[in-house]
Amino acid sequence: MNADVFTIKNLDLHYGTLQALKDININIEKNKVTALIGPSGCGKSTFLRCLNRMNDLIDVCKINGDVLFHENDVYDRNYDVISLRTKVGMVFQKPNPFPMTVYDNIAYGPRCQGVKNKDKLDKIVENSLKKSAIWEEVKDRLKDSAIGLSGGQQQRLCIARAIAMEPEVILMDEPTSALDPIATLKIEQLITDLKKNYTIIIVTHSMQQAARISDNTAFFLTGELIEYDKTDVIFSNPKHTKTEDYITGRFG
Amino acid sequence: MKKNESLFMNLKKSLSFNSKKEFVDFLVRVFFLICTIISASFIFIIIFFIAREGIKPFVTDNDGIGRVNIIRFLMGTTWLEGTVFRSNLYGVGFIIVNTVYITLLALLIAMPVGVLTALFIAKIAPKKLSEILRTTVELLAAIPSIVYGLFGSGVILKIVYDLAKVFGVQSPGGNSVLATVLVLALMILPTITALSEVAIRSVRSDIEKGSLALGATKTQTNFKVVLTSAKSGIFTAAILGTGRALGEATAVYLVAGNARSGPSLGLFQTTSTLTSTMLQGLKETIGIDYDIRFSVGIVLMIIILLTNTILNFVKRRIGKVDVK
Question: CATH number of B93-322: 2.40.10.10, 1.25.40.10, 1.10.3720.10, 1.10.1790.10?
């Protein structure tokens, strides 16, 4: 049996002539939190965007190698990118709620997939908000604009929005870097709760965060995957000197 | 008294210069102030002049024709040339209705076309094509209104005339509500397109990415997220389009047919707007006929002011959700 959600083989990625990812091989385990760490520009966000094909939006981006989602290559000509993105949700660095009501933000994804039934949408909205630990704060403000929420609330709303699609995987690109420590703590608790039902891949600049919430950690440096192991091992007994240098703060 | 003194001291202080540089700086600021006063004062000069001429028909006996009744003037459904008919029965009620009606129809055509064009230029067309299209739209916006008018009377009138025949209507040379609406729609289209395009382009790209990452298609994203996020800017485009449509005279005058009674609601009926009525024969009229056109000008200014106020109010209401 295969507990891997993603299997990446020999992945190369170029932006024009610049090689951003070099021969990446990695397996992402189901229902685990996988943290991607490394200094700025090391390719971790680029790698994350390969998993739901958000790099498609960049014209000059060329990709070689295999990105297998449950053994299907997502870069296959016939692969349906819409269905991929419904199964692999994404949360961005800066909270990006749509300029609509809280309710419409959550219902947006399901509506795009053709869900029209009001009761069903109500249920989806309530469940998603509850799972994202924001229901109590917004249940009386469902018809208010999401723009009026605080930054931390907005980010949890964005997580709820991703959850509303019932994805298998949630990609998070530095989800707490624009938030204050208390909001960050809430998001981290949320991530720990969510991994029971979802596979989470998170890019983070904070080594403490990676150590606190992740099961596995991958260390990227200048487009290469230097080391990938259990988080405990990476932070206590790294095999690579480069990894050790990074986590002990000697560079990056 | 003390306050005045300190004011004087301040003035004196600000007029004593420590260096040549400071003095030059002061002069430049005074120059800016003078420029501002000149440009701002013109609005008052214009309003004063128009109002002075415009109230004459209501307060003098107009060389024996008699005073124009202001209620009748505002509600009236016919416009009789006072010097020809020796009458004071001027009515602009129907012309107000015509003006608003025509503007509304023109917006109804130009808004969807303009916004969708803007969406295409900003989001869908390949880069090269969108640059060409953007330049084209800018060129269209720069065409003077008399040229639109000539195009209208040379081309659109013929088309409307033939179209009227198909419906069994004998249109007077095509001069009609429909022709006016089409010419106006053409004229405000570039304004609406250009402004909507700017509004659409300034939608934050991370909102778009958020939508795509949720499995929405490009089209769903464009309509549900991009357009709704840009709606405040698109509404501004509509406001400016409305302003241009209400205020356009030359082109409208050439295709409206200048009806003297109304209102004209049928598409093939001749019509007249406040602007075309003012322009009609302005240079050949004297006495009350001349003065009354200034009264129409006052009415037009009030209508534009009212429309802008209402539209801005609506804009604030619908744009509320965008407020950061």
Answer: 1.10.3720.10
Residue A89 has its nearest CB partner, among B209, B213, B229, at B213
Q: How far apart are CA B214 and CA A106, in angstroms?
A: 10
Min Cα–Cα distance to chain A from B123, Å: 12
The sign one gets for the Cα dihedral B55, B60, B66, B71 is positive
The values of phi and psi at residue A177, to 5°, are -70, -20
Cα–Cα distance for residue pair A89/A83, rounded to 1 Å = 11
What chain A holds in terms of domains, given with CATH numbers, is 4-247 (3.40.50.300)
| Interface membership of B322 toward A (CB under 8 Å) | yes
Closest by CA position to A194, among listed A132, A107, A105, A124: A132
User: Rounded distance, CA B262 to CA A71, Å?
Assistant: 74
Give the ipTM of the model, two decimals please.
0.89
By Cβ distance, the residue of A54, A82, A84 closest to B217 is A82
Residues in chain B within 8 Å Cβ distance of A97: 210
Q: Is A86 close to B224, i.e. CB distance below 8 A?
A: no
User: What's the predicted TM-score (pTM) here?
Assistant: 0.81
- Each residue's pLDDT, cut to its tens digit, for chain B (324 residues) gives 455 566 566 666 666 777 888 889 999 999 999 999 999 999 899 999 999 989 988 888 877 778 888 888 888 888 877 667 777 788 889 999 999 999 999 999 999 999 999 999 999 999 999 999 999 999 998 999 999 999 999 999 999 999 998 988 888 888 999 999 999 999 999 999 999 999 999 998 899 999 999 999 999 999 999 998 998 899 999 999 999 999 999 999 999 888 888 788 888 888 999 999 888 888 888 888 888 899 999 999 999 999 999 988 888 887 654 433
In angstroms, what CA-CA distances link B317 with B25, B241, B310, B313? 43, 19, 11, 6
Helix, strand and coil percent figures for chain B, each rounded to 5: 75, 0, 20
- Sheet with A18-29, side-by-side order of all strands: A18-29, A4-15, A61-69, A72-73
Q: What is chain B's length?
A: 324
* Positive/negative CA dihedral, A124, A126, A131, A133: positive
Query: Which residue of chain A is at minimal alpha-carbon distance from B225?
Result: A98
Domain ranges, ordered by start, for chain B? 93-322
